[in-house]
Amino acid sequence: MSGMTWQGWTEIAVTLASPLALGWPLGLYLARVWTGGKTWLDPVLGPVERGIYRLAGINPEQGQRWLGYTSAFLSFSLAGFLLLYLILRVQGLLPMNPQHFGGMAPHQAFNTAISFVTNTDWQSYGGESTLSNLSQMAGLAVQNFASAAAGIAVAAAVARAFAANRGETIGNFWADLTRVALYILLPISLVLAVVLVAQGVPQTLVSTVDAKTLEGAKQTLVMGPVASQEIIKQLGTNGGGFFNANSAHPFENPNGWSNLIEEIVMNALSFAVFIAFGVVAFARKEARALLAVAAIIVCAAAAVIYINETLPTPALTHAAHVATAPNMEGKEVRFGAPSTAVWTAMTTGASDGGVNGQIESFTPLGGGMALFLIKLGEMTPGGVGSGLYGMIVMAIIAVFVAGLMVGRTPEYLGKKIESREMKFAVLATLILPAALLGFAAVASVLPEALKGISTSGPHGLTEILYAYSSAVGNNGSAFAGINANAPWWDATLAITMGLGRFAYAVPVLALAGSIAAKPKLQPTAGTLPTDGLQFVLLLLGVILILGGLQYFPPLALGPIVEHFQMISATH
Q: What 3-state class would DSSP assign to 571?
């Protein structure tokens, strides 16, 4: 017997449906923000927005070509990296450090700064034992807002490109960045941070409090400004926790209600970006098709994880002579297998990386499914902004494949897809496997790298694959058995994170510039419909085939081999 129940399936269904439902109105609002339309927050935030433009010397009406937009995106990210690196290195000299933590080592500060600037939030440290309140707030939390806003800005540029008719510009990065942060991220975070405080998440500058245990012993509890960082960590698909245990820690995620809120927030804005794209690009039906593909994959992944995590492990069944106990290792008893399964699917499909359990302790196929979701390119629904433009790249490849089959020049959303666009799309697609598999291959044989691996054999290979997949996919979650705080791991994972963010976004923006300059064509009788079931199935096939062809060999040597080892453990 298994531990699956109808209540568990209902919980998973409700959890997955909620961000989809909320993403719809949020996406319509986001579209107004992208286009500079009036919002109900204008009376309050309009003067602030205009003040920022005056102080920074920004003309929001002045559009940028793709190269100018890209330069602004990269320069903003570079400035954020340098600022965060400096804060982390001189932390010991800065105020709001009651625990007197020293500065980070150069290699760890380098890794952490790139991690948060790229929206990855990979952490090779324990936040509560390493970072001061100032570093958490002025360093990490600021970059959580900045990196999320930058990703959504790039998605806005892609949407404008498909709406343009022989256009020269794709928007103004600085205006997009300002409006997304002011009208989306800040107000939602402010409201929901208060909601989390009401659920029991701390928000204080007090560093520690002393408590008496039931046995009468003294226990020191670490506190801090947790709620404000927790909510943007989920809303911006950042994922980096205030505490080392992330959202499995009761101060980040105290109860079932806080757990549900964080799960919904984790995916809602990513789904909203798809809806906003459809509005701005005049392609609402086509955007719903893209959204359907993302939803189908994440729902299927949640089901696979739930099934595998509620089956008893053969070795435990053989040793204890019980056949009803699910695999509860690595799961919070407060949440159980259903919540842990759906959270894992949502966090690895959304480039979030926050966890409410330990993926290292999942069954091989449960952990392998989380790994596979990341390897697909983080587009189900992916990070805020990045998931949308990742799905657009796959859609362009799909219509190109369809065009080859029927002998027509492919079109997508009224734009002809020619050799220039395909080169940019393929370049973006090749960045991820090249960085991931290249570094993983070296780490699998390099003694310096293998020192950080806690397990040999297939599970050790999975730890390596997961680390580089998480880095290049800008996810940030980890198989916790890996000790990544070492020069090799800090340096190579940082490089991988940078490639996954910037070496992917630059071809996408070049693609947007090329698309914008093309005439907007009306569909003809020979145009492939991209809003129906046929295209949904085609796009699903392209995504899964690309993922399978590129990653099946290492997956076969890692989680798949480990699965067969597990089921044969009693023989």
A: coil
User: 489: closest CA among 520, 529, 527, 446?
Assistant: 446
Q: Which residues on neighbouring strands pair with residue 357, listed in sequence order?
A: 331
Question: d(Cα 240, Cα 247) in Å, to the nearest integer?
Answer: 9
At 416, which helix (H) or strand (E)?
Answer: strand 415-416
**Distance, CA of 141 to CA of 136 (rounded, Å):** 6
How many angstroms separate the CA atoms of 475 and 382, rounded? Answer: 9
Q: What is the pairing mode between strands 218-222 and 411-412?
A: unpaired
CA 356 to chain centre: 15
Q: 143, exposed or middle or buried, with CB in 10 Å at 0-12, 13-18, 19+? A: buried
Token duo for residue 230: 């927790």
Q: Tell me the residue length of the chain.
A: 571
Q: Is 208 helix (H, G, I), strand (E, B) or coil?
A: strand
Distance CA 284, CA 50 (A): 31
Q: Counting Cβ atoms within 10 Å, is residue 545 exposed (0-12), middle (13-18) or buried (19+)?
A: exposed
Domain ranges of the chain: 6-282, 385-565
Please tell me the distance from the alpha carbon of residue 176 to that of residue 179, in angstroms, as a whole number: 5
Are 56 and 62 within 8 A, CB to CB?
A: no
- Residue-wise pLDDT tens digits, 518-564: 999 998 888 899 999 999 999 999 999 987 788 999 999 999 999 99
DSSP 73-129: HHHHHHHHHHHHHHHHHTGGGSSS-TT---PPPHHHHHHHHHHHHTT----SS-GGG
| Measured distance CA(491)–CA(485) in Å, rounded | 10
127-163 pLDDT, tens per residue? 999 999 999 999 999 999 999 999 999 999 999 999 9
**Look-up of token digits 């927050």:** 41
Place of tokens 């958490």: 136
Measured distance between the N- and C-terminal CA atoms of the chain, rounded to whole angstroms? 20
Q: Position of tokens 């949640």? A: 302
pTM, full prediction = 0.96
Cα-Cα-Cα-Cα dihedral of 432, 436, 439, 441, to 10°?
-130
